[in-house]
Amino acid sequence: MEIRRIGTPLVEEEIVRLRSGDKVLLRGYVYTARDAAHKRFANALAAGEALPLDVSGQIIYYCGPSPSRPGRIIGAAGPTTSSRMDVYAPTLLSIGLKGMIGKGKRSEAVRGAIVRHNAVYFGATGGAGALLSCNVLSYEIVAYADLGPEAVARLYVRDFPLFVINDSLGNDLYETGRNKYRTA
Amino acid sequence: MREIRCPEIEAALERLFIEANTELCPAVKERIEEAVTQEASPVGREVLEELLANARIAREERVPICQDTGLAVVFMEVGQDVHLAGGGLSEAVEEGVRNAYKNGYLRKSCCDPFSRINTGDNTPAILHTSIVQGEQVRIVVMPKGGGSENYGEARMLVPSEGKEGVKAFVKEMVQKGGPNPCPPIIIGVGVGGNLETSAILSKEALMVPFGLRNEDPRIAELELDILGEINRLGIGPGGYGGTTTALDVHIKVIPCHIASFPVAVNIQCHAHRMREVLL
To answer: Tell me, what DSSP letter sits at residue B138?
Structure first.
């Protein structure tokens, strides 16, 4: 298993070297957004308005953390199911988004857009929100504060443990992994 | 007639939901530890180790095991010789849930289905009550995340489909979910009754302890048969491929209409959070 240390913003030369199944330790800023925030992104783009963040080269983390206890940076901060964002992801990839972190399968349209735009989809372990919170060094809400747990936040992460699911060549760890161990 | 005061129930619910969300049940931890020794995939083993480390951090730092601290599911058995005093039972449950999610720094994940506007305090709770003999109240809480709940379904099968129909239905749901409901999963199956009782039964099946088989040997055999087949699907921990896709399968059966064969499948993620108390 290849372990790669990479940072944000992502650069294409680095993205194209990532392979489905690689373990990645990520460092840098990522932006949280879930269903409600994505819907607002889509509405803004449809109305010709600017997004509250420049997604160019950035990573969106599908995450709605639990509230932080006093003295901690963030509450539990694991991934939510990515497929609910599938309808919005190709548009964001077309305007420069380079990475997504979540859990679970992506649609054919998203997998195609990942290849077309030299992007990458990472998996974080679902249900490991306490563990992942230890790798978040800062947390700051940057848009849609009224959405509560679904607000867009900027997190600074270090050694954030991920696996490459969908790489820029079109490989999919969920397919290859399952096929490797499938006996029924 | 024994009197139990509703504020006592309210306090118990607050404590149970906070505990359930931050301290992984010892039985789940043991089952995952066992799975680490059996998992064939190195990546799968790494994911399982992450889950054990996660449980330790959650307990020590009082952080939720998962940020999805769920809808607040409550099963309550009320003894018929109990007099509930000092307020309304439903109000006590709502207040207990409200306090738990606020004071325990748990995520409020309840919203209007159409506007998607958050109710702000994780109420209403999902409360199932039953009247039983005796003068005690048994409360089981199960905060249940959306990711796993989304791969559940109640379906009216045809009686002739029998056990093979149940098996095919469970496999279909597990394959449809794949990595999404956070494997290794636990599978609850409710068979019989009607549409709504099969669904509730499937949730109750999730509350059966690991390794405890249905007392009907034919159903016990079906549970093991389905568990074996699920673990040969290759989905594995996190869905990254492996031999541990499900930790257990529990089937509960009750009689149904002569024309019907209701079956419900309820999938639970590895963060199987549950606590109970007897008042």
So the answer is: E
Question: By CA distance, what is B110's nearest residue in A?
Answer: A149
pLDDT in tens, B20-49: 999 999 999 999 999 999 999 999 999 999
Tokens 């490991």 correspond to: A128
Contacts A83 to B, Cβ<8 Å: 180
Residues B15 and B129 in one domain: yes
Q: Within the 131-170 window of chain B, which residues sit less than 8 Å (CB to CB) from chain A?
A: 146-147, 150
Which B positions 34-93 lie with beta carbon below 8 A of chain A? 40-44, 46-47, 50-51, 53-55, 57-58, 61-69
Q: Which helix (H) or strand (E) holds B28?
A: helix B26-38
Number of folded domains in chain B?
A: 2
* Average pLDDT score, chain A: 96
Residue to mutate among A61, A131, A139, A164, with most B CBs inside 10 A, is A131
Give the residue numbers spanning the domain of B241: 147-271
Cβ distance B9 to B94 under 8 Å?
no
- ipTM for this model: 0.93
pLDDT digits (tens, 9 = 90+) for B159-175: 999 999 999 999 999 99
Provide Rg for chain B, Cα atoms: 19
